[in-house]
Design goal:
Elements lengths: L2 H15 L8 H6 L10 H6 L12 H16 L2 H16 L2 H16 L2 H16 L2 H13 L2 H17 L10
Amino acid sequence: MSGRLYGLMLTAVLALAAPVLAVAGDEAAANATPVPWNSLSSEQQGLLQQFSGNWDQLPPERQQALTRGSERWLKMTPDQRKQAKGRFTRWQQLTPDQRKVIRQRWQQFQSLSPEEQQHVRDNFQRFRDLTPEQRERLRQRWQRMTPEQRRELRETMRQHRQQAPRPDKPQGR
C-alpha cells in the first residue's frame, strides 16, 4: 500500500470522523450569512456558551461551522461523543505542519471521484482489519521498495481493480 494511499485513507477517516478538519473555501466564506445567537436551540447555546459574549463578532462561516458542529454533537450517542473527544484531543496535539499535511490530503481525497473515494475507504478498512504485525510487515515491505517498484505495484493493483468485478455489484450487468 502506497504511502500516499495510506495517507489518503488516514485522512479520509480522520476527516469523516472529525469535522474540525473541514476547511471552508473562499467562496463559501464569501457567501456565508451570519447565524443569530437567538436562532440556536437552548441546547446549542449551552454547548456554545463560551462564544455567547462575542458571537456577533465571529465571522459568519465560523458561526455556521459551530452551529453545524453543535447539531452533530447533539445527535451523537455518549460513545460517539467520547470517540469524538479523543479524536479532537489527538488533532490538538498535532503540530501545525502535521495539520497542514492532513488538510492537503483531505483536499486530495475530496478531489477523487466517488468510486475512487470508496476504493480508498475499502482499502483503509482492509488495512485496519489486518493484525498489528501484518500492518507492520506491510509498512516495512513498502519502505524497502524503490520508487519504481512502488509505481509498478500501484499500476498492477489499478489494472487488477479494473478487471476484477466488484463484489457488491452483480456480475454480467
